[in-house]
């Protein structure tokens, strides 16, 4: 879609002049609804409320792909459900498996767009990294997800179904998806309502029943939404993509810093930790010769010294469409050592899927070039 952006003062208020294009006619996903919402939908149409529990059993325990398989529901109800909702909104285009057990899925949506979802295996369990948007408008200079800009937000149910599809793949080996990270394509807080719907559904005991403390939300730093999320007072983990120790460098890496200044962002983070009592994780990608020197580590330690936090150091994945290179191994360790010298809790993220299209948005950029041009 062609667009012309007017000077940006606020990411949420950016004015965009678009060529007229019909809004895609998206059918709602049944996975968007909580049990109580299903109950309301059912009773409004003259059906018994207990059918909601039967539906949840078919969706999250038996994990069927169609309403026709829900044999204990009346035929008339199944037809009403088919008229209003979709069970399956994702079709697998590509499924890549790494030597380390990482699985990357490229899914096609009902309107033809594609998204990525990743299963990562850890000692503590299986983690699913989900996508919240088709593309992204944040424009980080190191990320393949931003190529082609933002196409649309995902529905809450389309995000839920990513976890369900991965769980169905794990069913083949009697494994369970135990953790979820919202770190895939898109900015989660830019699709706030759908993200919150997703969190409530996957956390529900009748649904996938994934514990709040096993779920992580990551943001590039939309300040008003950080305050809003803090006020939710959830037990969910929270991460900020920081990637730089000062405003000048962060603005170069992440244009969002021009709208939401680093000092204001740090105030929002302090509000979050004070309000929730929980620590925040700072995601810090190491880009060779850009932000990975010892002096950067010293500056970072000073920036976050009074914040209840953990720093997750991420050796950058090479993306052909971007120019950044990997930081040498000894320099990564020197950066970590410097942070720890100043009392900062820091770890180096273990690499996953280095032998496949590991970087976020990379598989979509390679296989669906028409979406990222």
Helix and strand arrangement:
Blueprint lengths: L2 E3 L10 E3 L9 E2 L5 H10 L6 H11 L13 H10 E2 L4 E7 L5 E6 L5 E9 L2 E5 L3 E3 L14 E4 L2 H16 L5 E6 L9 H12 L11 E5 L3 H10 L4 E5 L5 H7 L2 H4 L2 H15 L3 E7 L7 H10 L5 E7 L13 H13 L4 E3 L13 H6 L6
Parallel strand pairs: 3-4, 8-11, 11-12, 12-13, 13-14, 14-15, 15-16
Antiparallel strand pairs: 1-2, 5-6, 6-7, 7-8, 9-10
Helix pairs in contact: 1-2, 4-5, 6-9, 10-11
Explain what you see:
- The structure is a single chain.
- This protein has helices at 35-44, 51-61, 75-84, 156-171, 192-203, 223-232, 247-253, 256-259, 262-276, 294-303, 329-341, 362-367; strands spanning 3-5, 16-18, 28-29, 85-86, 91-97, 103-108, 114-122, 125-129, 133-135, 150-153, 177-182, 215-219, 237-241, 280-286, 309-315, 346-348.
- It starts with a strand and ends in a 6-residue tail after the last helix.
- Mean pLDDT is 89; it is low at 1-23.
- Helices cover 33% and strands 21% of the residues.
- It is elongated, with a radius of gyration of 21 Å.
- Helix 4 (156-171) packs parallel to helix 5 (192-203) and helix 10 packs parallel to helix 11.
- A 10-stranded mixed beta sheet has the order 5-6-7-8-11-12-13-14-15-16.
- The protein has 2 domains: 28-86, DNA polymerase, domain 1; 89-371, Aldolase class I (TIM Barrel, Alpha-Beta Barrel).
- The protein is built from 12 helices and 16 strands.
- With 373 residues, the protein is an alpha/beta fold.
